[in-house]
Amino acid sequence: MQRQAKLRAEVDPWQETLRRIDDAAELAALDDEELADDLKAEVAALDERVQEMAFRAMFSGPYDNEDAILAVHAGAGGVDAQDWAAMLLRMYLRWAELHGHKAEVVSEVGGDEAGIKSATLSISGAYAHGYLQSERGVHRLVRLSPFDANSRRHTSFALVEVWPDIHGEIAIEIDPKDLQVDTFRASGAGGQHVNKTESAVRITHLPTGIVVTCQNQRSQQQNKARALEVLKSRLLSLEQQKQEQQLASLKGDHISAEWGNQIRSYVLHPYQMVKDLRTDHETAQSQKVLDGELDPFMEAYLRYKVAQRTS
Fold first, then answer.
1. Relative orientation angle of helices 36-56 and 2-30, to the nearest 10 degrees
2. CATH number of the domain that 145 lies in?
3. Please, which pLDDT band fits residue 306 given cuts at 50, 70 and 90?
4. Helix, strand, or coil here: 261?
5. Pairwise CA distance, residues 285 & 275, whole Å
């Protein structure tokens, strides 16, 4: 039923737009001056609608219309990096809120003094993965450190990972012998079960070293089931990245989301600037970006991705 609803949501707007175009063409054929103003307004509305749908057509990947799993990891920069990771977590939660998407923290590991060491989000909504795929990579922050007594400028890094959240539809077989399952007491909000029972689950996929933690569900069994879903999504994404790298090597391109390859810089001192290093899209409205207004960057990346694919 979910698959049917998603397909209908994709097809219906096209059929409705085609119907409106046909109606407008019939009005134009009447050549009635009294209808001229109405026709101009409809043509303008259709032009805007077609532009919007042409943009949506860029979501051509097999999982672009799926929900998303997003993880943030603090990198180099000590306490500043952990604080930066928390700022990014807030930014994506605000982005989801602005779009009316449902966002849920699947797991979170707090920082030593401030911020977080890592966190994983589940974001549900139309084209969530299609938009958020632009965020995969290293994000760099330059600012006056609030943790430096001398208020010196510091540079911090955080890694963002994104996978499609396909909810049990992934045809990937996992050998139970390849899994190490650990349980522990969850931390943070969540009810009476938190810190009283070992309901949180950590699964390690031994062949790849991928570690998935889930602690937001109310029972150990639910956390384990959700962690397995996330693990399958990560394994699927890993396979996709391998295919992309093989294609890139054939084309002579270099694709990497490793620490040395930052995708975006956020400068808060000595000036205000957020710049995407892949698309060169930039803005001086850094606070708006940190408050979740990411669409211009995401849209610029989608156009960049289409251009790269067709070049």
1. 150
2. 3.30.70.1660
3. confident
4. coil
5. 11
